[in-house]
Design brief:
By secondary structure, this protein is mostly helical. Helix content is 59%, strand content 0%. The chain has a domain of 93 residues: Serine Threonine Protein Phosphatase 5, Tetratricopeptide repeat (Alpha Horseshoe).
Length: 154
């Protein structure tokens, strides 16, 4: 007797699982992903609008040292030089406003510098306090111009 062999029919082929590989992506998709990645990296390289750079300006740092030494005139000069180097330095405007409020009373200059500070940094944590200082300086300025309200008229 001869032995009959049964040919097994071939199994249907399963689709092979494909894993993510940049080499298998079509050229356009890979290019698009590359461009998006480069844009994200480029956007992260630009400085933000925070104060991280302006507080490193040499004249500003010198002004802060002079404030600690209570040299108000020297600090005032340093902060003005800081503003010459960077007119958008909110910190230098704030420091000048404080000097003009407390140590060299000049209400007009104090109002100007405090308002510039708020314009450059509208979301400042101390904005309500600064607005209070501005209002007080405006009252002082009005009293200077019109005379004190308690003074008797002649």
């Amino acid at each position: 007797m001869s032995r009959k062999t049964v040919d097994n029919p071939p199994l249907p082929r399963r689709k092979e699982l494909t894993y993510f590989s940049p080499m298998k992506l079509p050229g356009r998709c890979f290019g698009l992903l590359s461009v998006m990645l480069l844009c994200l990296l480029w956007a992260g390289c630009h400085p933000t609008a925070d104060t991280s750079q302006e507080d490193k300006e040499p004249h500003y740092l010198a002004g802060r040292r002079l404030v600690q030494q209570r040299d108000w005139k020297g600090a005032e000069r340093s902060f003005h030089k800081s503003l010459e180097a960077n007119p958008r330095s909110s910190l230098a405007h704030y420091e000048l406003g404080v000097i003009y409020l407390s140590h060299h009373p000049n209400p007009a200059a104090a109002v100007y510098h405090m308002e510039r500070y708020l314009a450059l940094k509208p979301d400042a944590v101390n904005r309500n306090e600064v607005r209070g200082h501005i209002d007080a300086a405006r009252r002082d300025l009005a009293a200077e111009i019109h005379g004190t309200p308690d003074a008797p008229s002649l």
